[in-house]
Specification:
Blueprint lengths: L1 E3 L14 H14 L5 E3 L5 E3 L1 H9 L4 E6 L3 H14 L8 H26 L23 H8 L4 H16 L1 H14 L2 H22 L8 E5 L2 H4 L8 E6 L9 H13 E10 L5 H8 L4 E9 L7 E2 L4 E2 L2 E8 L11 E3 L16 H11 L5 E4 L6 H8 L3 E6 L2 H20 L1
Parallel strand pairs: 2-4, 5-14, 6-7, 6-13, 8-12, 13-14
Antiparallel strand pairs: 1-4, 2-3, 7-11, 8-11, 9-10
Helix pairs in contact: 1-2, 3-5, 4-5, 4-6, 5-6, 6-7, 6-8, 7-8, 10-11, 12-13, 13-14
Length: 421
């Protein structure tokens, strides 16, 4: 059927490729005619054929042949026919494919509502009638995958391209260049990764802006961690990162630590506890009744000053960091090797101190800006220094007043430095 071109509605956010493509298409249409009609919804919203429409307009045409589709299945069939018959004239840029996919998703949502209405309340949500002919069978599969397949993309690639297009619609100043590069190169993955980088930078800036003044970003407490922690509210800590003593006489501390962590951690919160290798079975047995074991990270201590474990006759260049969680929740992917800088075994502030480089990487990998990090065995304060430098809120506990005084000075200076960066 023919309809006036001025009755065709072009959805917002449609992005076309270079004008040269439209001009070449117009020349082809003038010579051999329009091979395929425009595809529109019942309310004349354009689904496929943006460049064909532009080519017709450039030729001065006032009417356009259209096919009206009412559901995703029919629209996808038309798109496949066009792609199979004449790929050179339906070479969709990623943003054009997304624009078509969005219209297909809208059609599918509308069709789903109509099916539900036709089914009636007695048949319930998600039910379908078969053989009655009153309404079509629902199309199986996720809407994302169906829309992506219809425009020649996998569901995942379509979703990534869609995220880039939607970001550019919300913030054209920052993200428009991503669309232009994506369409020019056809590389959806690269544009999506750059979008994620932009979003992460924005999240970091927002978290830093929400932090209180430097002197309010940390609190330190003197005393036994089990006693002091009773004053802290339940589910008030995002991550616990700590390095308790390793000798055998301190093994009871690990079970107590797991119990305290189970109360203080928010749902899905994490406990990262650095341990020695000698008593790993005992430590795991003490902690797993209270928290869910998730993984063991390798904290590397490279260099020529490796500790010597005399009773095991081992020179060790790494420490296990046991990762426990309070409840089960999805976490971001992380690598399980945390390297400290070579020969950076810093014992200036505590005989059992860790390097700022290694603890900084552990804090950065296992927590996020603005989150509350707790170290109940603070020692010389290295975990706190790393946390405040990385824009985390910090709570430290230690039973040694001299070590706590050292830690307070170091963390306060680190917080001031961070606030001026």
């Amino acid at each position: 059927m023919l309809i006036p071109i001025d009755q065709i509605v072009i959805p917002q956010g449609r992005h076309r490729k270079h004008l040269g493509d439209v001009q070449a298409l117009a020349s082809s249409i003038a010579q051999v005619g329009l091979l395929h009609p425009l595809v529109v919804s019942p309310d004349h919203r354009l689904i496929a054929g943006a460049r064909r429409l532009a080519a017709l307009q450039s030729l001065g045409r006032t009417e356009a042949p259209v096919t009206v589709v009412t559901n995703l299945t029919d629209a996808a069939a038309w798109l496949r026919a066009e792609r199979d018959e004449n790929t050179c004239r339906l070479d969709l840029a990623p943003s054009e494919a997304v624009a078509i996919g969005l219209e297909l998703e809208r059609l599918e949502r509308q069709a789903a509502k109509e099916r539900q209405a036709a089914a009636g309340p007695e048949e319930g949500r998600g039910c379908k009638r078969t053989g009655s002919g009153k309404f079509p069978e629902p199309v199986k599969g996720q809407a994302r995958d169906k829309a992506g397949q219809a425009v020649g993309m996998s569901g995942k690639t379509y979703a990534k391209a869609k995220a880039v297009v939607e970001a550019a619609t919300r913030d054209p100043e920052r993200c428009r260049q991503l669309i232009e590069e994506m369409d020019r190169t056809g590389n959806v993955d690269r544009a999506y990764k750059r979008l994620k980088t932009l979003q992460e930078q924005e999240a970091l800036a927002a978290a830093a802006a929400a932090l209180p003044p430097a002197q309010e970003r940390f609190q330190l407490h003197h005393g036994d961690f089990a006693e002091v922690s009773r004053a802290l509210p339940d589910a008030s800590v995002d991550v616990i990162i700590t390095d308790p003593p390793y000798p055998k006489e301190y093994l009871p501390l690990y079970g107590q630590l797991a119990q305290v962590a189970g109360r203080l951690l928010k749902p899905g919160g994490a406990l990262l506890v650095m341990v020695g290798q000698s008593y790993l079975p005992d430590i795991l047995a003490a902690m797993t009744p209270h928290l869910a074991y998730r993984w063991t990270l390798a904290y590397l201590t490279p260099g020529g000053q490796a500790p010597q474990i005399w009773d095991r006759r081992v020179n060790t260049f790494w420490k296990p960091v046991l990762w426990f969680t309070s409840g089960d929740r999805e976490h971001d992917w992380i690598g399980d090797v945390i390297p400290s800088t070579v020969n950076d075994n810093d014992k200036r502030f505590h005989p059992w101190g860790q390097s700022e480089s290694g603890m900084g990487r552990l804090v950065e990998r296992c927590s996020k800006p603005g989150q509350v990090v707790l170290d109940p065995f603070l020692g010389g304060g290295t975990t706190g220094v790393a946390a405040v430098r990385l824009q985390r809120r910090f709570i430290g506990i230690d039973c040694d007043p001299q070590a706590l005084a050292t830690a307070r000075t170091r963390i306060a200076l680190a917080a001031q430095e961070a606030s001026h960066e």
